[in-house]
Amino acid sequence: MISKKAWIYIGSLVLLIALFILSLRVGVLQLHTPLLKLIGRHDGVDATTVWDVRFPRAMGAVLVGTALAIAGVLAQGIFRNPLAEPTLIGLSSGAILGTIGAIASGAATFGSRTNIEAAIIGAILAALLVQLLAPNKGFGFLIAGIALSSILTSIAGLLISVAAKPGIQSISFWNFGSLSLLNNHTVKITAPFLEVGFIMSLYVARRLDIYSLGEESAHYMGVNPRRLRFWAIICMAILVGGSVSAVGSVAFVGLLVPHIVRLLIGPSHRRMITLSAIIGSILVLASDLAARTLFQPHEIPLGLITSLIGAPVLIVLLRARRAAWVSE
């Protein structure tokens, strides 16, 4: 007898595969050759469209969706705050500032390894600043994150405006995210960083269940809270930095997905990590399909779609927690 949770995993994987195939088939250019006949082929318009344009875009959606969803699970777990999310707590803005600073200074080019490393460093510094400035780990932490995020985004905007680097002003997707600039090279460079972050998240998740009992209880059960927070922040920075450096800021994925997964399978972080990776991929794939097909031939920034979905969820959560906000 297959359990309910197993059916959830199976159904999610089937939906993910279906959306991935649909992403390869759907677009401005209509394919005249079945996908199966294009496997192994790299000649002709159809093959080039699928393997050089749509395939890296679909793979990028899976990687980014996985990374941001897992980062959201870690953020909500390590800060024990249901509103913690990479964009809201400043990690995405730090990553944006890091990557734009590297490009504007000439130290890196878009899609390079140095660009990704700069984004990760920016995300780490932003997370540490929020930790330092936050008056508490509740809504005060959220307010500090939003404030710092606004400051870092403004600085990044100023860099884009005054940078002498040719073409940097044309990279307009930083604030709303887009998969349009992804190619096979960018995916190949970004994937190893996100894989490292995924492996680290499994290490952190094993201890988050104990940490959720409270810092004192976790200490007595052999988990060092400070060390766990450190590794969680490093892991989130790698996941968010790698994603942002490739596609810009995609908001609310890290907020929405953990809540969905928690409702489906419960609060176990080890299980949440794996299912969140799948649900996050589904959300970003579906959002990207909507972004590039709803108003063809025009394309909507990916982050606008995810924000339209995630912002109402944030409002509901804030209203549900209003009593706690007042008490703090």
Show the helix and strand layout.
Blueprint: H1 4-25, H2 35-38, H3 45-78, H4 91-105, H5 113-133, H6 139-162, H7 184-211, H8 215-220, H9 225-247, H10 253-265, H11 269-293, H12 302-320, H13 322-327
Helix pairs in contact: 1-3, 1-11, 3-7, 3-9, 3-10, 3-11, 4-5, 4-6, 4-9, 5-6, 5-9, 7-9, 10-11, 11-12
How far from one another are the termini? 47 Å
Largest sheet: none
Radius of gyration: 20 Å
CATH class: Mainly Alpha
CATH topology: ABC transporter involved in vitamin B12 uptake, BtuC
Number of domains: 1
CATH homologous superfamily annotation: ABC transporter involved in vitamin B12 uptake, BtuC
Discrete helix count: 13
List how many beta strands DSSP finds: 0
Q: Please state roughly what percent of the residues sit in beta strands, choosing from under 5%, 5-15%, 15-25%, 25-35%, 35-45% or over 45%.
A: under 5%
Structural class category: mainly alpha
Q: Give the helix proportion (percent range).
A: over 70%
CATH architecture identity: Orthogonal Bundle
Principal-axes geometry comes out as: globular
Mean pLDDT: 85
pLDDT < 50 runs, ≥5 residues: 323-328
